[in-house]
Amino acid sequence: MADATTELLxxxxxxxxxxxxxxxxxxxxxxxxxxxxxxxxxxxxxRESLEMIVHKIGRILxxxxxxxxxxxxxxxxxxxxxDQIAEGH
Length: 89
Fold this sequence. Notes:
By secondary structure, this protein is mainly α. Helix content is 75%, strand content 0%. It has helices at 4-16, 19-34, 44-62, 68-86.
């Protein structure tokens, strides 16, 4: 019988794909963002949001592109920053 962690990883693999594939995609996209001309102009919240969005994009491209939670999470991280901008933060 598999332990709880093994079972969780097997289940996540169905929606998130191979961790090594996800890591390659995500780290490549993050490197491009960090080299972008406006990266240093972004607030910490904006940077974190962008990195989390890229993390979700990595899951979409390595795993199940029809897993709704990935798309909802992207919208959520974008909304957090949009709300901060609207509030003047």
